[in-house]
Each structure stands twice: as C-alpha cells, then as structure tokens.
Amino acid sequence: MAKFAVVQSGGKQYLVKPDQEIVVQNLPGDEKSVDLQVLALFDDEKGSIELGLPTLKNVLKATVLENVKGEKVRVARFKSKVRYRKVTGFRPQLTRLKIGAI
C-alpha cells in the first residue's frame, strides 16, 4: 500500500498517504469532512504516476479532527538611531485533518 497524493489546501501543497494526519491553514465552517483537490497521484507498487493539468478529477476526502492555534510567531520592528522598537506577535489558526483512502 504505497500510494501517495499531492493535494492542495489554502494555496499550499501537501504530500499525503492514506490515514495520515496533516495540519493546514484554518478552514472556515463547521464541516466534519473536507474535499481536497488532487494535483498528482503516485503508486510505488505499480510504478505509475498521474499528473493533473492543473488538477485531477479525483477528489480526496479528509476528516476534520480539530481546529487549533499554532506556535506564537514573534514580529519585531526596529529603526536604528531613533530608539524605535516594537514587538508584537500572533498565533495562526490551524486545522488538523485526517486523510481518507486514496
């Protein structure tokens, strides 16, 4: 069972396997499942590759496990010679997904 897929979510691409958990940017809504666009499929057993132009017609089902906050990101501003320093930060909103069958 060596199938892989490249899926797209939030403008980013992820290499996933069946039953894998991934963390993506926050998905709006209170849905329990999400459809992800498939860009490419790989099968090591058969040695086959399917590439989409830009996506395949296949849709990958993923289950939403939880919405979480990411690690705090520190943002600092500094201007030399004028004693200006400002430090702020934020924690990105993330969603954990469990990939279904490919």
Task: Explain how this protein is built.
This protein has 102 residues and is mainly β. The strands form two sheets. Strands 1, 2, 3, 4, 5, 6 and 9 form a seven-stranded antiparallel β-sheet that branches. A two-stranded antiparallel ribbon has the order 7-8. It is elongated and about 65 Å long. The model has no long low-confidence stretch (mean pLDDT 93). It is 0% helix and 63% strand. The chain has one domain.
Brief rundown of the structure:
With 102 residues, this protein is an all-beta fold. The chain is built from no helices and nine strands. The strands form two sheets. Strands 1, 2, 3, 4, 5, 6 and 9 form a seven-stranded antiparallel β-sheet that branches.
